[in-house]
């Protein structure tokens, strides 16, 4: 399986029929070669007010207890319905068989009293968790494999990180490898290896420069 990831000019939230057909043609070609195709989307965290993933609309962001707008989307707001319909439409028309959901609901409470799927602060965590679970259930019902960075295994998730700290991706490559090996060793006490994934920065991810990337280090790591 290959994944259209961030930075690949892939947008699963589009309704542009020409773009959808372009991806559908690429998926069909890959499948003709025996390769399944997945796609990336940042679905909740950092999708709010001034979040780096693109504002979903201030009416759908998490409202802090002090009434302030936050950087996260509320997954018990109308954003859930819009996202669900966009992804279901895209998956159905393109034939994607996998969804990489970055930034699923992470536990933030929301004090909004106008969101569609929760009443106020008191039920916001429960309702957002419920909506996230329902989203994964419905993706599995249309046979979509779920790759997620959190442990939603009991609600349809298939793979999660074997330890995940983005700061390690900016360390010198040799130190990154050492830490990754330690995380794999530790986490496979509680997860099957096939439940996990790790991250390998081929180009600079946050910082760290050339020493933190792997593209030109074949001799160092004996990659053939």
What does this structure look like?
It is a single chain. 33% of the residues lie in helices and 13% in strands. With 224 residues, it is an alpha/beta fold. It folds into two domains: 157 residues, Aldolase class I (TIM Barrel); 64 residues, no CATH class. Strand 1, helix 1 and strand 2 form a beta-alpha-beta unit. The longest helix is centred in the middle third of the chain and has 21 residues. The chain is globular, with a radius of gyration of 19 Å. The model has no long low-confidence stretch (mean pLDDT 90).
The largest sheet has its strands arranged as 1-2-5-6
Tell me the helix content: 25-40%
Main β-sheet description:
4 strands, parallel
Can you identify the CATH class of the largest domain?
Answer: Alpha Beta
Topology:
Elements: E1 2-4, H1 17-32, E2 37-42, E3 61-63, E4 69-73, H2 78-94, E5 98-102, H3 121-141, E6 145-147, E7 160-161, H4 173-187, E8 196-197, H5 218-221
Parallel strand pairs: 1-2, 2-5, 5-6, 7-8
Antiparallel strand pairs: 3-4
Provide a short characterization of the protein structure.
This protein is an alpha/beta fold. It has helices at residues 17-32, 78-94, 121-141, 173-187, 218-221; strands spanning 2-4, 37-42, 61-63, 69-73, 98-102, 145-147, 160-161, 196-197. Strand 1 (2-4), helix 1 and strand 2 (37-42) form a beta-alpha-beta unit.
């Amino acid at each position: 399986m290959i994944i259209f990831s961030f930075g690949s000019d892939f947008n699963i939230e589009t309704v542009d029929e020409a773009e959808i057909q372009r991806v559908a043609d690429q998926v069909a070609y890959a499948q003709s070669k025996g390769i399944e195709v997945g796609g990336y989307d940042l679905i909740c965290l950092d999708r709010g007010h001034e979040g780096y993933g693109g504002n979903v609309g201030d009416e759908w962001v998490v409202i802090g207890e002090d009434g302030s707008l936050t950087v996260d989307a509320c997954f018990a707001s109308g954003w859930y319905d819009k996202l669900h319909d966009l992804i279901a439409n895209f998956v159905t028309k393109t034939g994607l068989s996998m969804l990489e959901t970055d930034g699923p609901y992470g536990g933030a409470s929301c004090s909004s009293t106008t969101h569609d799927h929760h009443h106020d602060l008191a039920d916001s965590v429960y309702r957002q968790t419920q909506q996230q679970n329902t989203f994964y259930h419905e993706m599995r019902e249309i046979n979509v494999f779920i790759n997620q960075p959190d442990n939603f295994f009991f609600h349809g998730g298939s793979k999660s990180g074997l330890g995940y700290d983005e700061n390690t991706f900016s360390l010198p490559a040799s130190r990154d490898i050492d830490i990754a090996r330690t995380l794999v060793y530790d986490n496979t006490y509680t997860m099957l290896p096939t439940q996990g994934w790790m991250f390998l920065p081929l180009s600079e991810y946050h910082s760290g420069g050339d020493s933190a990337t792997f593209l030109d280090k074949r001799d160092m790591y004996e990659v053939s």
